[in-house]
Design goal:
This protein has 163 residues and is α/β, with parallel strands linked by helices. The chain has a single domain, classed as Nucleotidyltransferase, domain 5 (2-Layer Sandwich), CATH 3.30.420.10. Helix content is 46%, strand content 22%. The protein contains 5 helices and 5 strands; from the N terminus they run βββαβαβααα. Strands 3-2-1-4-5 form a 5-stranded mixed sheet. Helix 1 packs parallel to helix 2, helix 3 crosses helix 4 and helix 3 crosses helix 5. The radius of gyration is 15 Å and the shape is globular.
Length: 163
């Protein structure tokens, strides 16, 4: 079972393909797609959409997992990231892949056992769970791995349940 985890953004979109096979989880590939901050939002959204479509075509994930938004300060950033989430979700829906969403609190609780864990604690757990030699870089890619793992912890058989 291949899970595509996405950490959405307009400037950077973290992504990861994590495979769940007979109780073992392994990282297939991860990365970060970046758009130019001085570019207009519609063009950035189109690039994100096309890139996600490429990942889906290349890796053929069985499940699509996206982090839900949580912003408490900058409304413009929240709206822009929400737009990015929209095109990301559209790409998953068009590919007819089951889509799941988790909040940052759910991700931290699932991996660290504490919803207020910091980024370093989550990255440490990602590294330990997948038996990696080092923390995946950049942070957005590590976050995408954490999102994929969260789904696997919530659904040991990832296709069974849909939220």
């Amino acid at each position: 079972m291949k899970v595509l985890g996405i950490d959405p953004g307009t400037g950077r979109v973290g992504w990861a393909i994590v495979e769940h096979d007979k109780g073992n989880d392994s990282l297939i590939k991860c990365g970060c797609f970046e758009t130019k901050s001085k570019s207009e939002l519609p063009g950035r959204l189109q690039k994100i959409y096309l890139y996600i479509q490429e990942i889906i075509t290349k890796f053929k994930p069985d499940v699509f997992v996206v982090e839900s938004l949580f912003f408490s300060t900058n409304a413009k950033t929240a709206f822009d990231v929400g737009a990015a989430r929209g095109v990301i979700l559209l790409a998953g829906e068009e590919a007819k892949i089951p889509i799941f969403q988790y909040t940052p609190l759910q991700v931290k609780s699932s991996l660290v056992g504490y919803g207020q864990a910091d980024k370093k604690q989550v990255q440490f757990m990602v590294t330990k769970i997948l038996h990696l030699k080092e923390i995946p870089k950049p942070d957005d890619a590590a976050d995408a791995i954490a999102i994929a793992l969260t789904h696997m912890f919530h659904h040991p058989n990832p296709l069974k349940a849909r939220n």
